[in-house]
Structures are given as structure tokens and as C-alpha cells.
Amino acid sequence: MASRTEPSGCSGRGGGGAPGILPLPLLLLLLAAAALVPRGDGQNLVTEDVTVVEGEVATISCRVKNSDDSVIQLLNPNRQTIYFKDFRPLKDSRFQLVNFSNSELRVSLTNVSVSDEGRYFCQLYTDPPQEIYTTMTVLVPPRNLVIDIQKDIATEGEEIELNCTAMASRPATAIRWFKGNKELTGKSEVEQWSDMFTVTSQLLLTVGREDDGVPVICLVDHPAVKDLQTQRYLEVIYKPQVRVLQNYPLQGLTREGEPLELTCTAFGKPQPTEVKWLRVDDEMPQHVVVSGSNLLINNLNKTDNGTYRCEASNAVGKSSADYMLFVYDSRAGDEGSIRAVDHAVIGGVVAVVVFAMLCLLIILGRYFARHKGTYFTHEAKGADDAADADTAIINAEGGQNNSEEKKEYFI
Predict the structure, then answer these.
(1) How much is the pLDDT for 349?
(2) Pick the residue with more confidence: 283 or 378?
(3) Which pLDDT belongs to residue 387?
(4) Fewer CB in 10 Å around end: N or C, the chain?
(5) How high does pLDDT run on average in the chain?
(6) Residue range 335-364: average pLDDT?
(7) What is the distance in angstroms between the CA of the first residue and the CA of the last residue of the chain?
(8) Residue 333: pLDDT above 70?
(9) What single string gives the DSSP state of each residue in 270-305?
(10) Which residues of 170-204 are buried (b: 16+ CB within 10 A; e: fewer)?
(11) Which residues contact 3 (CB under 8 A, 6 or more apart)?
(12) Which residues, in sequence order, are CB contacts of 188 under 8 Å at separation 6+?
């Protein structure tokens, strides 16, 4: 008489036996499958590797290219049977049948954990049996992403240290740094605990006043997450920036008897607590009126010439800006205008004279060129047919005499 045995790790579906006990024929088939040592290269089986994020759902598919109604089985990394055809002997209810046919066995695994990672085997009971495996890779995103700044408030020109830590990820996280839209380079260290990795990236940054209020961003580059980042805003203090503005006169010269009004603007962080005016290398004239950041001289004279300096200070330091004053004569602007007009008139007259002289030279040149040609023509007249030089001279003289005689005759 055959006995019934409940195999370890299997749950039964009923025929006529007690609950949890498999029918003997099915039990024997399962035991045979578990003891089977597959051979061949899985030439008729197809599967793909699976990558899944921890806590999500993974799907494993065993497919037969040319089905001959052979039995398909799926085993876990410990070679325990997950599904035999459409039956699940394994008590792990996270495994669910998605599809079963003669050509495919597809199974889903919910709430995946790192312990589920490994090789899963597809087996096909042909003669000889075939086997192929798929590798499940479980990704774990960083648990925490934190930026730690060495100093909450930095001074302009100071080098500060920032650290960004991504904890307990798998695989190790790559960390990137940005200041505003500009990418910076940090230095990363990786620590491993069991099968998890913690990455810390260090960034050294020399800050300026332009960095005040700018975000420093720590961004994670990891296959399990997208756009995971955190940021901290920089706070930078700096000494004042000082400028001197001339309110009056807006344009033109600073002349005797006229007023001068200057304004000193100063901006820093913290805001300057003191703004003052002084005269460089000399005492401030008694008639100069200083009111806060404004300086006023109602009646300028040449004794006011010099350099006037505005100084501003805050908790970080002191800065200054200078204004050089030169007082002109009261008629300096008018005389300058008259001189400008005189220069223009003189320039016009000179241009006309030069043009006239050029025209006269051209006319004289043409006149002399014309008469010089006529003289040479008459001088040589009568000498062309001479047999020698003496005859040519005589002929030329004769020609001149004849010419004179002709002129006398006509007169």
C-alpha cells in the first residue's frame, strides 16, 4: 500500500487526501523534478534578466520556442520549486501566476527585497531535460540625502566645506554638485555595510559676494531614482561697495561761484552702519556741508580743489571711493566756446587759401608747359634737312632771320 508524504516547503491542493497533503502521483512527479539534474543548454527555452527596485514588482518569464507540451517549472536561487506548471508548491504568497500555457510560464513577485536577488531557473522536461536561468538584480535607492555646511554664514573670500551624504543604496550612488547652473567637482568616499553602500561627497568652495543667496545642489545619479536632489542656500557676508555720484552739476565743469552736490552710496552685508566724508591730505573746508551720505558746497572756489573721500564700514570691513574736484574759472566754459568758434573759423580760412593756391599752381603749370613746347618747335625749324651740324646751325639762324624778316614785312 502506497504511503503519502508531505514534502517540506510545499502546500497541497486537495484531491481526496487531508488538507495540505498532495495526491501521490503529483507528489512523486514533484520529487522527481526536484531530484532531476538538468542537462543540455536550454536551447528551446527563452528568458530575460530582471532588474527591479526594492519594494516594487518583478516579473519572471519562462518561454518555450517550440512547444511540445513538455512540463515547465520555475525554481528560486535555492532551487526550490516556485511553480510547477500552474501549481505553486512554495508557500511564499508574494509569487503569483500571471500566465500559464504550453509555451510560457510567467510569474510575478511583489514587494521585492534584496534577499530575493539571485538566479532563477527555468526547466523544461524534455528528453534530455533543458534548463536556463535569469538573474534578478534588486536596486535600492538612497535612504537619505543630506547636505551639511561647515559654516552657515561665510565671509567673502573664505573657503568653506560642504558634505553631501547618500545613505544605504545599492549599487553605490554617484553624487554631482551644482552651484546655480554651474557644475562643480567634489571628492567622494564610499563605505559598505553588508550589501549596502553609503557615499559621502566633499566640496570645497571659495565664496564671493555674488554667491550670497545662490543654491548649492547635491544631485544623485542612481539607476533606482530620477531627479533626487537636495540643496542649501549660501549666506555670504561682505564689506561695503562704495560709489560717489555727482548730483549737481549734472554735466559740464565745476566752476567758481557755482554749487557742487555729491552723494555717497554704500551697500554691503550687513548694511553699512557708518558713512562719512573726509578730504584726503587736507582739512575739510568750513563752508562744506555734510549731511549723512550727502556733501554740498554752495559757492565753489579754487581753494576747494582736492580729493574728497567717502568711507563706509560694517562688521566685515571698510571700503571707500574718491572724488577729485578741480574748480575752473567762472568764464571757463564761455571762453572755451569762443575759442572753439575761433578755431573753426581759422580752420575754414586756411582750407580756402590752400585750395586757391593749389588751383593757381595748376594753371601756371599748364601755361609754362604750353609755351615751352612752342619755343622748342621754332628753335629747330629749318635744321631738319641739314647735311651736318654747321649747316643745321646756319639753316636755323637763317630760318630765324627769315622769320624776323617775315614779321617785319607783315608789320
Answers:
(1) 80
(2) 283
(3) 57
(4) N
(5) 82
(6) 73
(7) 179
(8) no
(9) SPPSEEEEEETTSPPPTTEEEETTEEEESS--GGG-
(10) bebbebbbebeeeeeebeeeeeeeeebbbbbbebe
(11) none
(12) 174, 175, 199, 200, 201, 202
Say how many residues make up the chain: 411
Triad 184, 188, 190: Cα angle to 5°: 155
Number of Cβ within 10 Å of residue 153's Cβ equals 13
Look up residue 395 and give its three cell numbers: 639753316
- Cell numbers linked to 220: 544623485
334 vs 123, higher pLDDT: 123
Given a cut of 70, whether residue 196 has pLDDT beyond it is yes
AA identity, residue 153: I
Please spell the DSSP secondary structure of 66-131, one letter per residue: S--S--EEEE-TT--EEEETTB--S--TTEEEEEE-SSEEEEEE-S--GGG-EEEEEEE--SS-EE
Residue 109 CB partners (closer than 8 Å, separation 6+): 57, 58, 59, 60, 94, 95, 116
pTM of the model as a whole:
0.64
- Residue bearing cell 568750513: 286
